[in-house]
Amino acid sequence: MSIRVLLTTLRRHSLMPLLVLLQVALACAILSNVLFLGWLQLQPMLAPSGMDTANLIFVDHLDAGTGEWTAAEVRAGAEALREVPGVRAVSAANSLPMTSGMIYAYGAQGPSGIKVGVNAYTGNGLLHTLGIRLVAGRDFLPDEYRNAGDYKGVPEPIIITQALAHKLFDKARALGRRVADPENPTGAGYLVVGIVRHLLRNQLGLATRGRADDTILLPERIAKTPVLLYAVRVDPAMRKAALRGVRKAIQHQFGARLQTGAQPKVAFYDTRSSQAFSGRRAALWLFLGVASTVLVVTLIGIMGLTGFWVQKRTRQIGIRRALGARRADILVHFLTENALIVGAGIVLGMLLASLGNRLLMHYYELPQLPWIWLPVGAALMLALGQLAVLSPALRASRVPPVVATRSV
Q: How far apart are CA 247 and CA 261, in angstroms?
C-alpha cells in the first residue's frame, strides 16, 4: 500500500492518529529535556579526577576566624601531619577538588584569542601529593614557588590539563607556550611548563560539556590566608590508622586557634565525592523516574489506541485478506502507518522541546538544549512507537479472511 493511500486513510479516520500524534509530541518534548538535564547531572560524576583518590585525605574548614594563618603556622601544620604514621606526602593548598571553602576562578587566553574560565589550585608539591601524572613537561622547580603576586614582569609557570591545552592551542604544541590573562592581555601572563592528563575542577556545576578539566596548577605558597586546606596522601595499608592520626594532629595543632563552632573536616576523597554527588544522584533518580513514567505511559497509550483502532477496522482487514493480502502485508501496513503518525508527532515534539527549554532557560537559568538531544529523543520515541504498535499489528495480521463475510 502506497504512502498516499495511507495518508488518505488517516485523514478519513483522524481522531485516533491525532491522539497518538499529540501523545508522542508531548512525550518527545519531555523526554529530550529530561535526558539532557540528567546528562548534565551525570557528567561531573563520570569525569576522571586525575588523582590517586583512593589514598587521599583532604583537610579543610580550618577557619582562622578574624585572623589569618601565617606561613609559619602553615608549615608547622604540614610538619605535624608528616609525622603521622602512614602519611606519605602532605601539601598545604588554597583550594582542592570536592572542597567548597575557597574557589579560585581565573581566565586563560590562548594565542588564537580563545578564552577559557578555569579553576586554579595552588600549593607546594601538589602534583606529587595528589598523585597526578605528567604526560609532558615537568613539575614546578623549588625556586618557582613564590608568594601570590610576586610574579611581576615575568610569566608565572603553570601546569595545565590536556583538555585545556587543546582548547587554548588547538593541535599546536602547548608546552613552553605563553597563556595570556584576558584581563591583562599585554601582561606577562603564564608559561606552560607541564601538562597532566586530567584534573577535576571544584566548581562541579561547571564540570559539564567538556569543561571538567578546565583546571590549572600555580606555584604559589600558602600564607596569610583565613582558610587553610591540606592534601594528605597515605599508605594504602594504613588508611584507617592514618585517618585517625591526621584528625588528632589537626586538632592538636590548630584546635586552639579555630573559630568558635568551626570543626575541621577530615575525610578521604572518596567520602567527599560521595557526599558532593549525593544531590546529583537524587536528581538522577528523579529524572529517571520521570523518563520511565513518560515512556511507560506513551507505550501503554499507543498500544491501547492502536488496539482499539485495529478492532474497529477488523472487517476492513478481513476484506484485504480475502483479496489476497498476506499477513506480512497487514503487519507492514500498521507499522508504516504508525511510523507516519509517530514521525509527525516527533517533529512537533522537537519544536515543543526547544520551546520548553527556552522557558526553562528564562525562568530557571538552565543551559540551552544542544540540538543533538533532539534526534536522541526522536530515535527513542520512534523505537518506542514501533514497539508499542507491534502487538496490535501482529493481532491484525492474524485476522482471517472469513471475517469479511460477517456482518459488523
A: 17
